[in-house]
Amino acid sequence: MVFMYSARSSEIKPFTVMQLLQRAQEFEAQGSRVVHFEVGEPDFVTALPIVEAGIEALRGGKTKYTSAQGILPLREKISSYYRDQGLDVPVSRIQITSGASGGLVLLAGLLLDPGDRLLITDPGYPCNKVFARLVGAQTRAIALQAQRGFQIALSDVEAAWEEQDRGVLLASPANPTGTILAADTLAEIGRWVARRDGFVILDEIYQGLVHEESPYASGLAVRDDVFVLNSFSKFFGMTGWRLGWVVIPEDATERFTKLAQNLVISPSSVAQSAAIAAFSDASMVVHQERAAEFSRRSKRLAAGLLNLGFTIPVMPAGAFYLYVDVTHTGMLSDEFCWRLIEQYQVAVTPGKDFGDFESERFVRFAYTTDSNSIELGLQRIEQALTAWGIRR
Ligand SMILES: Cc1ncc(COP(=O)(O)O)c(C=O)c1O
């Protein structure tokens, strides 16, 4: 049977990383050991206190819908998490979502109409354009240059902004570059956009995963009117529980709740009860240790890759990625990734999954794999470069 599927579903491009992952799984099914640098999720399982709270929630019958905003005790925990960061974020502005992805769907529904446009970055999180497209809006990508530290500038927004633009979506720390958005820039862009009745969405899903102390805890410390996206996926190690939150201005909360009621009814009740335990002292120690482990891995992998002749034009400040220039191999990044998986069973993601701008130069390494695998990966890459005549 043939149906008339939507134009927007035809426009979505599959990610190369999924094809690479499939290839990796085929090698694994044949018994080969694959080194995974492609997966953007922590290799650690969820911290035990959270798992136990989840089991208790199931046993205790926390299996019903909750309110669309999310359960109050969890929103209170998030509010006090911000208080610990020196920020006053009332519970009324915090809404629980099904991951940051769920937050993006709802924010798109809240902020964009057909024909509107949203400014995003290139490179950036590849799904961003799909959320806008789903509500009939378009995106325009602003190129981030390595020689400018992958930082956006107000002048970029000024140059790109046209009548149909409604706002800007930024991330800090960013995927795939690990860059923390400069506070001054966020302040300037926020001020400039607000004068045009526009909005800034700041994706802080990698909050807490930083290598040095962050210049500001949350963008909310810089501008209180940004729409902040956050998630339990990364720092809190709960990818599969599908839970996140947004902080939105007070006057948007009622509309947002209405959208959530209609589109998702409520986020997962079990995940919400479990996530309360994510803020306990015992869990926080686990999250902090894991964040420190990511920083150690970042340094080790970066040193190993630099030693092999790769260039890392901007050392990341956070997240768990290195955005690496492969120009010295004489290959475009896509070819490099495919040869590496086919011949040496090392999986990395080509830059084209994150945009078009200079993406043929770059690959993303996710160090969401243990130290032994990182060492094995580096050894295999060294062998590859030697066999390909790139390194003697
Ligand atoms: C920048 C960014 N935003 C949002 C997401 C979505 O995450 P989740 O829906 O698991 O919270 C991801 C996932 O990798 C991401 O990298």
List keywords for this structure.
single chain; 392 residues; alpha/beta; Aspartate Aminotransferase, domain 1; Aspartate Aminotransferase, domain 2; 2 domains; seven-stranded mixed beta sheet; three-stranded antiparallel beta sheet; globular; binds pyridoxal-5'-phosphate
Describe the structure.
The N and C termini lie far apart (57 Å). The mean pLDDT is 96. With 392 residues, this protein is an alpha/beta fold. The chain has helices at 7-11, 16-29, 48-59, 72-84, 99-111, 128-134, 154-160, 183-195, 253-263, 269-276, 281-307, 333-344, 371-387, and strands at residues 35-36, 94-97, 117-122, 138-143, 165-171, 199-203, 227-231, 244-247, 321-325, 346-347, 349-350, 362-366. Helix 11 (281-307) packs parallel to helix 13. Helix 8 (183-195) links the parallel strand 5 and strand 6 (199-203). 41% of the residues lie in helices and 14% in strands. The structure holds pyridoxal-5'-phosphate (PLP).
